[in-house]
Amino acid sequence: MKTSCSLFCPPGRPGRILFFAVAGLVLPLLASAAAPLPRAEPAAVGLSAERLQRVGTWVERMQTENKISGAVTLVARRGQVVRFEAQGVSDLASKRPMRGDDIFAIASMTKPIATVAALMLVEEQRLLLSDPLEKFLPEFRAPKVAVAKADAPNGYVLVPAERSITIHDLLTQSSGLATGVGPAGGALREAMAGLAEDAGLAERMKALAKVPLVFQPGSAFLYGPSTDVLGRVIEVVTGKSLDVVLQERLFGPLGMVDTGFVVPREKASRLATLYSSTDGSPLTPPKDRITGRWLHSAGGGLYSTAPDYLRFCQMLLNRGELDGRRYLSRKSIELMTARHVDAIPISFLRGQYFGLGVAVQEDSGKSGLLSTPGTFGWSGAYNTYFRIDPKEQLILILMVQRIPGNNLELQYGFHNLVMQAVVD
């Protein structure tokens, strides 16, 4: 995978590791990591051990069919880990075996983390969901909306926005901010093309603010740069860079020791390689990352591990608390998982509505998932995937590195294999 020095450092020697067993599996974890959640045999928490083994068989098949090089799968129920397995290889060229503490680019699984950081500021009354964006980023004052018009010079005309973009719009992907498609798609590409690769959040937001909106704020759902803009708002409100905010408020206290926007030199040897494959073709490294290319992207720039992300998920499942420390109130978690957008107009998220930074399972059965209404989570462009089922007290995490993204065979396949093991 082609990388830039702003995101990675040259490989160094990995830190000292220790081993522990989970349901008969021996897996490595960094000695410096926070204490893992308690372990249990599947039967002790109402899961069939025999059925849960189907996950491992499925991962092996995905490898054989050239769909992944390897995977880390993690399942926890009722606060206890019942499956944590690394299979396959992290890098095909070196044949390095996948490890439980391997580091993955989690792409859009960054968004729920940034959302939690924003909700922490809401709880402190430093931010309101109704706040206009220009209160923090004046460059977004009085935005214009591009309306298609065939005989116009650029194929569109500009009309004033009926209202300001709000923080709620950013959290619900309903801001209207351009994504590169639509009548003003070319304007966005031109604005971004003029930026240096190492341009920071402030500079990128100023460039984005010059691009017309795709629709009136709050009138539709469009998955785009809203969370990246939210990241800049968090910086302005706190007076600190986004990486520092996330480290101080979440990663440090939660014990997420391998999560950040940069993979340090001493950890680079644990970085899982990203691969591309279509229609069963051989896995090959793509020329470049397709998301979170620049530093401090709240929408897709983080790297993490399955054990780290589990701690974040367990905090959410515990309604905002972990190990005696409260990060969010129960009411904020309820707000995060409430119905803010009735339906997500993305085919692979059918049967789910949008909360704040997460998709939530509705009770219609349209998703085709073996799932409980109220289950929530998100996925990443490299097919990393997580879901939290509050009723079943269940967390499931899949870490792979494969594009194209949104692969239902991988994401839904893993999901359903875990859920079919629930027997009590």
Structure characteristics:
globular; 2 domains; 10 helices; 8-stranded antiparallel β-sheet; 18 strands; 18% strand; 424 residues; alpha+beta; Beta-lactamase; disordered N terminus; single chain
Q: What can be said about the biggest beta sheet?
A: 8 strands, antiparallel
Calculate the terminal CA-CA distance, rounded to whole Å: 43 Å
**Assembly category:** single chain
Number of strands: 18
* Average pLDDT taken over every residue: 90
Low-confidence stretches: 1-32
Per DSSP, the total helix count is: 10
Enumerate the strands of the largest sheet in spatial order, edge to edge or round the barrel. 5-4-3-17-16-15-14-13
Structural class: alpha+beta
From the 3D coordinates, which CATH architecture of the largest domain would you assign? Answer: 3-Layer(aba) Sandwich
Classify the fold: give the CATH topology of the largest domain: Beta-lactamase
Share of helix, binned = 25-40%
CATH superfamily grouping of the largest domain: DD-peptidase/beta-lactamase superfamily
